[in-house]
Amino acid sequence: MGGAASALDGKQVEERTSTENGASEWAKVAAIQGGRWSGTVTLGTGGPYRLEFRIEGESLAIVVEHVLVGDLWILAGQSNMEGVGNLDDVQPPSPRVNMFDQTDQWRLAQEPLHRLVDAADRVHWRRNSNKQSEKLTGEGLTNWINARRKGAGLGLPFAVSLSQATAVPIGLIPCAHGGTSMDEWSPALRDKRGDSPYGAMYRRFQAAGGKVTGILWYQGESDANPKDAQQFRKKFEDFIAAVRRDFDDPDLPFFYVQIGRHVSKSPPEPWNLVQEEQRLIALRISNVQMVASITSALDDGIHVSTADLKRLGHELALLALSRPIYTLNREKESAPPQPAFIRRDGNLIRIGFSGGKGGLHAPGRISGFTIHDATGAPVPLIYRAEIDPSEPTVIRLYLDNNPPAGATVRYGYGRDPYCNLTDAPGYAVPVFGPIALPQAIAGSGRLGDQ
Prior knowledge:
Layout: E1 2-4, E2 12-19, E3 22-23, E4 27-31, E5 36-38, E6 46-55, E7 62-69, E8 71-77, H1 79-82, E9 85-86, E10 97-100, E11 106-108, E12 126-127, E13 133-134, H2 138-147, E14 150-152, H3 155-166, E15 170-174, H4 197-207, E16 214-218, H5 232-246, E17 254-258, H6 268-284, E18 288-292, H7 306-321, E19 338-345, E20 348-354, E21 360-361, E22 369-372, E23 378-379, E24 382-387, E25 394-399, E26 408-411, E27 422-423, E28 432-436, E29 444-446
Parallel strand pairs: 8-15, 8-16, 10-15, 16-17, 17-18
Antiparallel strand pairs: 1-5, 2-3, 2-4, 2-6, 6-7, 9-14, 10-11, 12-13, 19-20, 19-29, 20-25, 21-27, 22-23, 22-26, 24-25, 26-28
Helix pairs in contact: 3-7, 5-6
């Protein structure tokens, strides 16, 4: 802690800390020298704290309210992380969750977390009629805030769930920006600072103290096109490695959401490719985990609904609870389901899943599985899909005929499929495939990270 104090050289600065349980005694923290002072106040994990500072013997004090000591998490990616859910029935704020808002001010976290138009970093500003970045201020900003009807995200539900489970306060650092691609998030642009999404995130990471507990990420929609999808895997893996290097934490927890539904006539192949690469990256890289959003409702053609953003935030909190920092004397939470093996006995296909705590579940008829020929075209063969009653993490697919040579199975094919398979805690089975079907009778295949 520190500040300016003119014409007071030689005097002492005192501090008093208050909580809901009472206040400490006034204690000297620093001497004023050269018109400035700097000292240390030691606080344990918890809060909210109220800090008061005064010149020794004076009655007038400067007060800093609602100080929390806990874990910091960065929110980054594009619009589904920025939050475009309807501002209806949003996650209520918690006194144990603060945010380093996009104007670089600490305050109580409440929806909407992201506000790009007057952010400290120019990359987030809107373009004016001359196509120049322009910060919104004054009456224009007031009118924009009052007219806002969208902005709910998953960050606050995540933080509230995590803090409630651990009793550790959470600080959020929102950095997402809708419509951004992996190229725009390139770590090579770090030194552009507030003129690039990555540079802005890195600057805010440093401004908040240069130490975070983890990253929450939701991006991929802008790369799910014929031009960029093929390079998505490398760009995303390089991004994760760069964040860990620049944040000086080689095992920094990195949790993200697999892109979900998109109501669109665009070709499905690039969309499904990005989804599959996201699924596989979570299997390849240590301390990287993913939840799926394919069962989520939408508030428009691509943006997850407020209710399901709250659910996804809670699921990400469950992932965080499985990290060593939170698992002392705590039973480790299960991981989301992932396809683990595929076996064939004639025209019966059995797909087993790892994870899947409490078994798999579906309301009504299981939907989302398809068979494809060697060219990738769907082949109508599945007449029944069911959960194996003796092995509740195994799905049985019954085929009406022999699959063609080179056939594959997929789950969640297309941009807007109907999928309804989850495990007991609510984690959705991720979109996956194509995965080759064994051709031999009673053949089997165990699925690695491909």
